[in-house]
Design goal:
alpha/beta, Arc Repressor Mutant, subunit A, Endonuclease III, domain 1, four-stranded mixed β-sheet, two-stranded parallel sheet, about 5% strand
Length: about 400
């Protein structure tokens, strides 16, 4: 490739960067946290590039991008790109994406069909996530299934995507943490009284512990919640938290998104401490988020428990237990009984004086009397295990 030159330039988004050769524009860099970081991004790709004042095609491209971001919308299809060295599939995706005009959007699946590869939403997501020409190749116009924002690999993440689309008159639904379910949570005192009335043995446990106290975690997205579950599988809490923190650090503003994940190389994910199996599971989760198999948190609130389980267990590495934990601790569903959970079965054994560990079917049959508050009953089974641990001798004489 010819020696590249580069420059930084002001826009309504902040200070962007551009690199060019004698063949055309070789890269556009959206603003990072400061000029030094923006320069570093450019030089990481073009280590021999020289910073200089843009002339000719580079200056015309800057003027056009600046005007576009000021609201004087321009398809920018007249800008010549130097795309040498890029995979052929990526070039086809970028060409198709440049045909999506200002104010329009396209889904990953539709874009895959436009390049003659129906069903290649994952490959399209990778190409979009690695787009070296943002603004000119308008990756902000690619949305996940159902018109959801999906991800955005630039600094600022989805907020930057939202700003760029807002300039074009496209308004996205909020990407902030999803609200709690609109149905009010049942009163803990009433739940405890109901369970004690239906089950005397459980009532004695409730008398020791008091009303249920189940904390519902704020959730940014279904993708982020399930990604965290995948990371935590088969690890101690401390080790999993460390790896999850390293994974989050790979994303803009530490906000996990499917498009940005697909843009990451396996080496980066493995470097965060993820096993090969978990890398495959996370990529499958990203694929199924982009194709709509995995609903948004807002959409989950409109589905019943069984429908959510049916949808989410299609993801590699996600089983029924993982979905049940999401139903309880992320969605606040009141009538979930995870009969395969060891803690629930162990707590049942302790609370009901069983000699043998009960089978999932045993717990399920008994749990029918706990409806419609089986989530709280499960919580009491976990607390029964905690009480037994507190009472256990320490071994010190």
């Amino acid at each position: 490739m010819s020696t590249a030159s580069f420059a930084l330039f002001d826009t309504t988004l902040g200070r962007c960067g551009i690199a060019w050769t004698d063949r055309g524009i070789a890269s556009v860099q959206l603003p990072e946290q400061d000029d030094a970081a923006t320069r570093a991004k450019i030089l990481a790709r073009f280590p021999d590039a020289r910073e200089q004042r843009p002339q000719g095609e580079a200056k015309r491209a800057i003027d056009a991008m600046r005007a576009h971001l000021e609201g004087r919308l321009d398809p920018l299809d007249h800008i010549v790109l130097d795309d040498r060295g890029l995979p052929g599939f990526h070039r086809r995706v970028y060409e198709a994406l440049r045909a999506v005009g200002p104010g329009q959007t396209v889904g990953y699946g539709e874009l895959a069909a436009r390049v003659g590869s129906p069903g290649a939403a994952r490959a399209v997501g990778q190409a979009v996530g690695r787009n070296p020409f943002p603004i000119v190749v308008p990756c902000q116009r690619v949305l996940a299934a159902g018109g959801r924002p999906g991800g955005f690999s630039a600094h600022g993440g989805v907020d930057t995507k939202r700003r760029m689309l807002g300039i074009e008159g496209v308004t996205l639904a909020s990407s902030r943490a999803a609200p709690a379910p609109t149905v009010p949570a049942p009163d803990p005192q009433a739940v405890a009284a109901h369970l004690a009335d239906r089950d005397a043995r459980l009532g004695r446990l409730i008398a020791q512990i008091g009303p249920p106290r189940i904390r519902i975690a704020e959730t940014q997205s279904t993708f982020a919640a399930l990604a965290e579950s995948i990371v935590y599988q088969q690890l101690t809490g401390k080790a999993a938290a460390t790896i999850h923190g390293r994974l989050r650090a790979l994303f803009p503003r530490k906000r996990l998104g499917p498009e940005a994940l697909l843009a990451l190389k396996d080496e980066a994910l493995r470097g965060a401490g993820l096993s090969r199996g978990k890398v495959r599971a996370l990529r499958d989760l990203a694929d199924k988020t982009l194709d709509g198999t995995v609903p948004s948190i807002r959409a989950l609130h409109g589905l019943d428990d069984d429908a959510i389980v049916e949808r989410l267990v299609q993801v590699r590495g996600i089983g029924r237990w993982t979905v049940e934990m999401l139903l309880i601790f992320r969605l606040g569903r009141p009538d979930v009984l995870p009969v395969d959970d060891y803690g629930v079965r162990h707590g049942f054994k302790l609370a009901y004086g069983k000699r043998q560990m009960p089978t999932p079917r045993d717990v399920e049959r008994h749990g029918e009397r706990w409806r419609p508050f089986r989530t709280a009953a499960s919580w009491y089974m976990w607390r029964a295990v905690d009480l037994a641990r507190q009472k256990a001798p320490t071994g010190r004489g």
